[in-house]
Amino acid sequence: MSSPPSAQALLAAYQTIPGRFDELSGGGQQPASHWRPLIQQLQRTPVETLNQRANSVAAAIAADGVTYNIYDDPQGVSRPWEVDLLPLIISAREWQGLAAAIAQRATLLDRVLADLYGPQQLLEEGLLPPALVYGQPGFQWPCHGVVPPGQRFLHFYAVDLARSHDGNWWVIADRTQAPSGAGYALQNRQVISRAFPAAYHNLPAHNLVDFFRGLQDHLSSEAPSGTEDPLCVLLTPGRYNETYFEHVFLARFLGFPLVEGQDLTVRDDAVYLKTLQGLQRVHVIFRRLDDSFCDPLELRADSVLGVPGLLAAVRAGKVLVANALGSGLLESAALFGFLPGIAERLLGEKLAMPSVATWWCGEAPALAYVLKHLDDLVIKPANAGIVMEPVFGYQLQGAKRTALIEQIKAQPHAYVAQEWVRLSQAPIWRADHDAPLTSRSIGLRVFAAATDKGYAVMPGALTRVAARDGMEVISMQRGGFSKDTWVQAHRPGRMASLAKPQLTVKDLLNAQRDTPSRVGENLFWMGRHTERAEVTARTLRAAFSRIATNDEESEDALIGLRNAAYRLGVLHPPADDEPEQALQPSLLAAVTDATQPGSLAFTLRALALNAEHLRDRLSVDNWHLLNRLEAPLGRAPDTPDRAIEVLNQVMLDCISLAGFAMDDITRDADWCFLMVGRRLERLVNLCGLITVPLSAPPRHREHMLEWLLEVTNSSITYRTRYRRSPELLPVLHLLVVDRSNPHAVAFQIEQLQQELPEIARAAGQLLPPDISLPVQRLQRLDLRAFEGSGNEKACEQLSSDLAEIIQVAYGISDEIQRNCFSHTASTQYHWNPA
Amino acid sequence: MTIARFHVRHDTTYDYAYPVSESHHLLRLTPRTLPWQTRLEHHIEIDPAPDLRRAFTDSFGNQITVVQYIRDHTYLNVNSECWVDLAPRPRPTAQVATQTWEAVRDILRYQAGRPLPADRLQATAFRFPSRNIPVGDSYRAYALPSFSPGRPLTEACRDLMLRIQNEFIFDNEATDTFTPVSEVLTQRRGVCQDFTHLMIACLRSLGLSARYTSGYLLTHPPKGQTRLVGADATHAWVGVFLPGFGWLEFDPTNGICPDQAHITLGWGRDFGDITPLRGVLLGGGEHKLDIAVTVVPEEEFAQVYVEGDTYLPVLPGL
Fold first, then answer.
1. Are A461 and A175 in contact (CB under 8 A)?
2. Residue A808, pLDDT above cutoff 60
């Protein structure tokens, strides 16, 4: 039996690829000196151990929940992030040049933005074609003339680099609006530095923490906050974004609340965060949302992700948006050819790092060149907002090639062609392969942040690795993975701890203070929708079971149930000139038709949307249950019996949800929102349902009591208590005044009396919503009036009292909505300014 | 030189199905001041009273009124009124007017290192496709019969304008605000917004600078009938850049060059830049929209309105 090869033997067998620069050998025969600490550690380590380390790296990533979302992925949107065991290492000498060149480029791009959104001298002097500004969707016209705080546009910048066979680095792309990847780089570092502690220490490698602290300091110091403590937030498009994990991670690392557009509001040209405790002024928005989505008022009108009025707040100088709105303009590779001239003009310097040769097809001579040399070129969109994978000319033959040429000719201004850089190769470790050490194409994404002393470049990078051997495109969307990137420091730096910073008491207070209103709002509506789903399912089940019986008594009951369904909004009464719909098809539609407001499917959809916003607050079991709530409806029942099966399942699930709410969620202020939502919904539904028999002719009334008990889930209690068929007086006692019945009106009101003050406290309101009227109505109710017969007057009075209670419940719901979630005023306030 | 004086009233009403708790609006309703257009008085009445109201000038020089509500409201009424004087528009000299369209195109073309004077720089802003106006071979092909080699720009544009007026049918059922220009070209129907977008698409596809102008047009009631309040509509037409002169205007809906009947509100690259009212609402559900525009020559003011009908009375001294 042969023993497994040693790491030393594997290194000896490591193959370089002719015509490509190899990062390990640095173009020579032996590994370059800055790789030595890592090589030494590898040589001392058995292959078996390295495999184990690779696996524990993957496990650590999984445990931290690091994911990357792939669009249109049938396996669900979240994929685990992949990082290679072996870091890429860059020597101190080489880094010095790289960092200086990147800082220069960031400085240049910031100046270019200031010019293009200001005086536009570059256009006037003919240094840049107007087509690359006015002809680009990336130029945000409404931002022209807007001077951002500190006159700075670019606060955080990333650049994609590739190394050609001669060892030179080239700029492939600029990321100027909301660069992604720095958080992943930090995450990679946390994991990989632990896999090779000795090599990391002996290199020594630069730490990354200082860079992020610098970014934090910079944003706070430039915040237009006057004497206030600046509040910085991280604005995310939400959990469907491909790099959502990174938004969560960076927000935590930087200590910024993570917010979505709907969490912010602009009042009097200032931006506020809607929290349960009220509006909090926001001074800095570190955004991961693209330019055009940021303000639906002045930018893209169809964006639901942004903040209406944000641009006005920027114009007024009351908020710093990083990067400045409109900075995506410079993500177009079409600009590359003009940058050397612009650098001379604006900085009086030569551009230190060349961009890869790029032809913008909007110029006729460039187009002619591109069509002639297609085989040596890579075709890309001229505007970064356009989603298109790079196309390698040499890979295109036949009809596909003709099609691309036609496409380019039809819209030449939309394309650029770049020289095809044969990417450099770096060693990777494939755990549990026969030949674990092999090489793969890589590219670098390097980050820079503004400071008061110019741009600081993060001493490290996100190295991106091609998914397969021989693959030319490096794309996370196409299965690529990543590497940690170590930059050699001149002397051992302090080993800044990368462990998560420990929480302080201030953090604990902030954690409560910064609960976005969105969380409370969705909990509140989750409570309402769960309750509504349950009562809808019960009502529909009661109706279906009577359709199946088909006798005279059931007929009477069905008349009442139809009215009950109208009351609840589950069915919609016909307009005056329309005939009443056949009952059975209407009821089936009320189960499955998600487009019909009030249907069970509609309510469950709404519930699922609430739950999505609460994902990080719900336990895994709770989440799974919410996830499968809509599943039973997929069977599309077509008979009453089938419908009853489906409804039974939905009811069971709703009961489980209620159980989770009681046992599984911390009883803080947030929980109160869930419970109050549930109470208010149940109160409204109960009052509405009880009104149906009360307002029916007396002879129909008794056939309505049985289903009323069923729908209000009180049949068992009634039966065990009274052992007889339902009669009005005991039913009213059980459903209206009995404080021990969780399905009684009195029970809801009593609970609300306890819970509403909790909500008011959480929201910093002096007075809780007023629930005294329902209390009084219950107090004056005298059930003796319902003894015997001839109690029409009492029925009428109770109906009108219940109607009043419903109005109060709706009023409370609106008040909570306004005071705690949307932070707006009511009309009444407007008309009575006293 | 005779001056024409007009009163314009532009009423917009939104009725929302449900209360709106927060809303933001941009109103582009203030007529610009131009060498031939004087804004004597202007007033925008907004009901309910907004929580915030401000004005600013956008990057095209149009004056915008910003309005914000942070309390429940179920409707929005905007009544914009103005008095404006229109002098005859300036005309290019014979020498300027005879520039060929190719010469104009080449002047606008980028050449590395060739400086762009301010007026040309401004003009190039309107040379490229914008969100609602594409460029392409189909528009070029439609325009070319009017743009024969060596033809003066003014003549070619007038010819294109008349062809659009003759070959397209005015039909306010055929399109809506979001109908793409490509559809207008194939179905040959539409309203002023569509014809203006189409003519601009044609001109930009040839490498010329063209802008979208929004405003009002004085109409004439049918013979024997009196002028009715609300009988008019907002209007749109085309501006084409002519070096050495400025912007020549063409109204492809009516086949005329705007003069003392066209009141200018403002301009942009396309309708999206100069929409009279644009807003973002929280809540509200569906809404009902009513727009009424009335343009009245000064001498008819007293026949159309009695005191109290308008916010702006007859100008003092008349």
1. no
2. yes
